[in-house]
Amino acid sequence: MELTTILTTIALGIGFSLSHCIGMCGGFVAACNLKLSKTDRITHFILSLGYHLSRVLAYVILGILFGLFGSAVIFSGFSKGLFIFFAGVILIILSFAIFKRGRLLSCIENQKIISFIMLLLSKFRQKNSTISLLILGFLNGLLPCGVVYYFLAISFGSGSIIEGAAIMAIFGLSTIPVMMGLGGILSAIGVKFKNYINLVSFFIMLGYGIYLLYLGFMVLK
């Protein structure tokens, strides 16, 4: 995996966890924290970490599937260049969709799938076992999300199971520090700062999409 991909994934993971992810998953994380409110600090930390690692596991499994699919369709130099170029186009579209937060993003983040997962979440939220908490984290990772789709497109374009899993793991792990400190971070950051982070993340996403367009074009040339 290229260093550019690793650094971009970490930067976007941190950046979007401060903007998009807090809005998308904040309610689920807050519900998790509420379930753990009566536990001591160490237990709270361990179980909360388990919740988020389970969420990352869902990302990794999706990364493996998309990397596998990418490896199945990328069977020559031409097809590799074509799919890298295609991935670049998808990333550019997603960057604008996430930044503008309009109808395109609503379409991408399918509300019917969200409603179905929310139904499952509500069932497991009522249970107090550790297993139910881990399942909640895993289901959280399956929520339709433009940012997750962005990294899945990169996983697909990599054409590798290992790289697909690694990309999603790096992304997921990069979001954990912010998501675990959700309450304090929400009160500490203002709307202007969130908008600034969102803008910077947009340019990073857009730039990486253009970079993939260039790589794909050079392979096809």
TrEMBL record:
InterPro entries: UreH-like_TM_dom (IPR039447). Signal peptide: none annotated. The keyword Membrane applies. Keywords: Membrane, Transmembrane, Transmembrane helix. The chain crosses the membrane at residues 6-36, 56-75, 81-99, 131-152, 164-189, 196-220. The keyword Membrane applies. Residues 10-211 form the Urease accessory protein UreH-like transmembrane domain. This is Sulfite exporter TauE/SafE family protein. It comes from Campylobacter porcelli.
